[in-house]
Amino acid sequence: MAQQERAIRTRHAILKAAASVFDERGYEAATIGEILARAGVTKGALYFHFPSKQALAEGVFTEQFTVLALPPRTCKLQELVDVGLLTAYRMRRDPLVSGAARLSLEGEMGMQLGPQLIGGWIGATEKLLTEAKAQGELLPHVDPAESAWIFSAAWTGVQVYSHNTARRSDLEERIAQLFTHLLPSVAVPAVLGRLLISAGRAREVGEESERFTRETAAAEEDAVPAAG
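Structure tokens predicted for Gamma-butyrolactone-binding protein (228 residues):
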């Protein structure tokens, strides 16, 4: 069990280091040597978990979702807002999220993996909007698939603008403004008036996500039977 835990920690350290280097340098300029130095592991340990730089990039794409976990909300439009604000909060604080964002938009790796990541975000958004419509939260004319594409594209555009103009220092505020502008076009007034949308909300859901992740990990650990 201790050996397995060490392997998990090593893998996570490698992904964190890789995401940080990818975010700063881009995929093409990133080197395995710099990733090794930041992770503090041997080349053998890295290649045990990830046989190539592309495998590292793919790992970063997948691993980012482990820091974007939230318990489900009764109101699915509030859940949509909270996921968007949480992603903005994490993008400023966790290289797994910011590194994945750069990879999805840059060069050859963006062409290879970007469509998969973008499709995943659109799909997740469509799922929440479909559930919201089933609960009567959306205006009758709203098409969840069409709206999911627009919301996802708009979120990405705001992120890129914030990165290029303010190094993402205003990202939570800008994402809150995005939802404030877009949601009146899809939400029924009774639901719209109850939604919590603010930059301060981003920190709240960020801290909630951290607690939720710790509690989930602890519960999974308790569920594993002791050896022997």
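The longest helix spans residues 107-134.
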